[in-house]
Design goal:
With 156 residues, this protein is of the alpha/beta class. The protein has one domain: Cytidine Deaminase, domain 2 (3-Layer(aba) Sandwich). The protein has helices at 10-23, 65-77, 98-103; strands at residues 5-9, 29-37, 40-49, 81-90, 109-116, 119-128, 135-137, 139-143. An eight-stranded mixed β-sheet has the order 7-6-5-4-2-3-1-8.
C-alpha cells in the first residue's frame, strides 16, 4: 500500500515553520526522519540541511549526497529511517513545482511550507506517483505525540 499520510508532532511542525521563516526569502530544506506504521509516516525528528544550490536559493534547493548521508545517520541514531524531505516556498503556494517533480525520489514524503512575507502559512505533504508523472497530496495528522512509540527530538 502506498503511503498517503504523515503524522507530525507540534514540535516538528513548529521546527519546519521556524526554519522556513529563518531562511526567508530563500528556500529552506531538511530531512524527515522517523518510522512507518500502518501506511503512515510518523515523523519523530527533522534534520535541517544547508541549501547549497548554485541556481539561486530563492527558488531552488539542493540536498547534497553528504547531507543525505547525515540524515540517514540521524535516522539510525533514533532507531528510525529517512522518510523524506521538507522545504519552503517563499511567497508561493505549498504546492510542488515542476522542479520539485523533476528531482523527487519515489517512496519519500515531501512536506512543503509556504512562507508569505516572512511568515509560515500553509503546510502540505506530497507523494510522488509510482509512474513519476505527478505528485498526490497526502494528509497530515498533527498532535503533541502523533504516535505512542515516537518521541519528538527535533535537531537544530
Amino acid at each position: 500500500m502506498a503511503l498517503s499520510k504523515v503524522a507530525i508532532s507540534d514540535a516538528v511542525n513548529q521546527a519546519i515553520r521556524r526554519h522556513g521563516q529563518e531562511t526567508y526569502p530563500h528556500e529552506c530544506c531538511g530531512a524527515l526522519v522517523g518510522t512507518t506504521a500502518d501506511a503512515e509516516s510518523i515523523v519523530a525528528d527533522v534534520v535541517p540541511l544547508p541549501n547549497t544550490t548554485e541556481e539561486g536559493p530563492r527558488r531552488r534547493f539542493l540536498v547534497r549526497a553528504s547531507d543525505y548521508r547525515l540524515a540517514e545517520r540521524r535516522a539510525a541514531e533514533i532507531g528510525g529511517e529517512l522518510l523524506g524531505f521538507y522545504h519552503s516556498h517563499p511567497d508561493h503556494p505549498a504546492r510542488p513545482s515542476q522542479y520539485d517533480l523533476d528531482h523527487a525520489w519515489p517512496t519519500f514524503a515531501y512536506i512543503i511550507v509556504s512562507v508569505a512575507d516572512g511568515k509560515a502559512t500553509d503546510l502540505t505533504v506530497w507523494f510522488l506517483k509510482d509512474d513519476r508523472s505527478s505528485f498526490e497530496e497526502g494528509s497530515i495528522h498533527y498532535g503533541e505525540n502523533p504516535h505512542p512509540d515516537s518521541a519528538p527530538a527535533v535537531h537544530r
